[in-house]
What we know:
This protein starts with a helix and ends with a helix. The chain is 37% helix and 13% strand. It has helices at 3-7, 24-35, 40-52, 83-86, 106-109, 128-137, 150-158, 212-233, 237-253, 256-262, 269-272, 279-293, 311-336, 403-413, 440-443, and strands at residues 59-64, 91-93, 100-102, 115-121, 167-170, 187-188, 297-301, 343-348, 352-353, 366-367, 371-377, 384-386, 421-423, 429-431. The protein has an eight-stranded mixed β-sheet with strand order 6-5-7-1-8-11-4-12, sandwiched between helices. A two-stranded antiparallel ribbon has the order 2-3. It has 15 helices and 14 strands. 45% of the residues are buried. By secondary structure, it is α/β, with parallel strands linked by helices.
Amino acid sequence: MTGGALFGKQPTMTVNQTCDGVRRRDFLRIGALGTAGLSLSDYLRWTAAAESSPKRAKAAIFVNLEGGPSHLDTFDPKPDAADEYRGEFRPISTSVPGIQISEHLPKLAGCLEHYTILRGITHSLAAHPLGQKYVSTGNRPIPSLEFPSYGAVVSRELGGPADLPLHVAVPKINQGAGYLGVKYAALNTGSTPKAGRPYSVRGVSLAGSLTVEDVQRRQGLLEDLDQRMRQLDGQNDLVAGLDRFTEQAHTIITSSRARQAFDVSRESPSFAAPFGETPFGQSCLLATRLVEHGVPFVTISFGGWDTHLDNWTRLKERQLPPLDEGLSALFSGLAQKGLLDSTAVLVTGEFGRTPKINTERNGRDHYARAMFMLMAGAGMTGGRVIGETDGTGSGPLHDGHSPDDVAATFYQLLGIDPTREYQTSTGRPVMIVREGTVIPELLS
């Protein structure tokens, strides 16, 4: 039985009512909108649009840009800022009139109609581990609780085919299943595909001369051993999680669909070519295959964005070309396969980088007050910029949005109520997203 079948799906809701009709968070938001010149009717119209939004997405892809990419040198250029902020790159026009991004992202500039740029995302955790936990869960980290990754929540809520992993991380994931437990952990591939070659993932592919019949015999022995162990130790959450892994590993390894889903060499050369041959590009190609075959959640990790030193050389020679090639091919490839409307895509690092250049190191340092994110698919209208930073990229021009708000929206697009409560192993009730509010513009 899948996670979705076990726990069921709840009605989508973005405004939760209390006995007085409006939740405190929503009451405060109405007040904030009023001070910004927006009426209550505007707010109610936005929330009505959010609540009536269909559950479009059946799968999701989370692209984690580990290290914190510079917003000014990618998707939020400031060509009119002073030299100490502007940097070395020029902006270029995109396929949407009036929107510009970095000159080193020409392919992404050419397919902006497939995605939306979020500018002015803001928070205060300018340290890698904390920032990673924040953007990977949509919840600000706290010492007393480990929040689950996006993939863990989606695995529990949506479920998936028994012969496929619910969450695949290419090549790995930094954030685990948290309080949801090991049974919702990701399958880490441990490597990335190579162009044109069959891809072997430990636990999915049959190694060497091992046959399916060999696996069946070993499974029988394992089941006998597992039964004896349960009789000795009793049942607990860890054993239950490991039992699930054992059962699913057997199902997956004997599944021809699983092996085909991971085999990027089966793609036609014409479809695979735009993804290029970099590890990131091939990871994006793999993600399209996994989603196409029924995997509900894929995480792609692409590091190297911690550019304290020699920021512009590293970006233009090492980081931006693979990002431009792989991500543009991911958006276009999903659209070509007819999967973009049913797949929610979120691209983010853990923070941005300092608007003011560190001249001693010719780089930019950690900076959480302003950053970018990208969102695509799930029926969202592409070709837009939502949010804005000030003239130097130092902070949101208006209120901005938090990673919590983006998380609430991401879940909403998947038909998951972000305010739904789970119970931890100690019985503590915790909402999926504790502080976020859905961004209505993304649902329009």
